[in-house]
TrEMBL record:
The keyword Iron applies. This is Adenine DNA glycosylase. One of its GO terms (biological process) is mismatch repair. Its cofactor is [4Fe-4S] cluster. GO terms for molecular function: 4 iron, 4 sulfur cluster binding; 8-oxo-7,8-dihydroguanine DNA N-glycosylase activity; adenine/guanine mispair binding; metal ion binding; oxidized purine DNA binding; purine-specific mismatch base pair DNA N-glycosylase activity. Residues 35-186 form the HhH-GPD domain. Binds 1 [4Fe-4S] cluster. Adenine glycosylase active on G-A mispairs. MutY also corrects error-prone DNA synthesis past GO lesions which are due to the oxidatively damaged form of guanine: 7,8-dihydro-8-oxoguanine (8-oxo-dGTP). It comes from Flavobacterium geliluteum.
Amino acid sequence: MKFHNLLTDWYLKTKRDLPWRNTTNPYAIWLSEIMLQQTRVAQGTPYFLTFTKEFPTVFDLANADEEKVLKLWQGLGYYSRARNLHKTAQHIAHDLKGVFPPTYNELLKLKGVGEYTAAAIASFAYNEAVPVVDGNVFRVLSRYFDIESDISLPATKKEFTSLAHELMPKDNPATFNQAIMEFGALQCVPKNPDCDNCIFNDSCAALQKKKVNVLPFKSKKLKVTNRFFNYLILEDILGNTLIQKRTAKGIWHNLYEFPLLETSTIADFEFVSNAVQNDFFEQYTIISIEECSDATVLHKLSHQHLHIQFWKIKIKEQIENGINQTNLKTFPFPIVIYNFIDKKELNY
């Protein structure tokens, strides 16, 4: 068929040399796919190289301490991916003797592995004829065939999966899947694609109908919640500070942070000062409270906008089991907190 022939030819001439493309090892493919969820290739590649160097096999990852895994993941975001990655590695190493499930349906049973990731592993590692359907694939197919179905609906996912399966050459599904994703990432990009220099510019329905900029169609808009975090950085007479582990379910689970005062809006000095002296650190003698205003951050997550303020509180006493700056950097933090620490805002 003309579509897959043109696409494959373009891919073989244009594809990027990415480290996880030079293998059929399901461990490396699984690792790359989990990392690249919600992450750009340029950002994810250094993490992939670090992980495969530190954990060259699934057994190495399974036997690692969770905090080490989270520390190496620091900055990639969506930390539940890292926790699921670690738990799944333990399941594969200990329960499956290090052998990855060899089929799409079996791969779906792994924790943290959804339809897209299972399809990617099944086709790239085992050459199973199952299509991958991600944002790139939605975009390419919706434009080429002028499909106006709402991609936020589950029924549309089935529609595009069926179409991709029909287009896929069953003797070489891996190359087809790689090609269509690469085409969406490099050529058929979301905004201002170079349609004049596109292999499909004489057959793309959206181009002919001047609908490239309106496809794919997505109706559902994500509701974003605003939250207001005040991090309280205690500094004792030795220059040590205090941190805590986020054990509650939700964002940043099992990462570390400074004591947190969450408010319903941006907090002023008086409110924070009262909370510090009456609710948080009443056991200490407060010398000073200072807002690190230069470090105020708006940190955007997919479903939450975090308005973060940092407050330095100096005390007369010594913190029991206090953490010095050198040791502080060894803990896994949300990247917004680590960046604050790394800029030496604490001035130890």
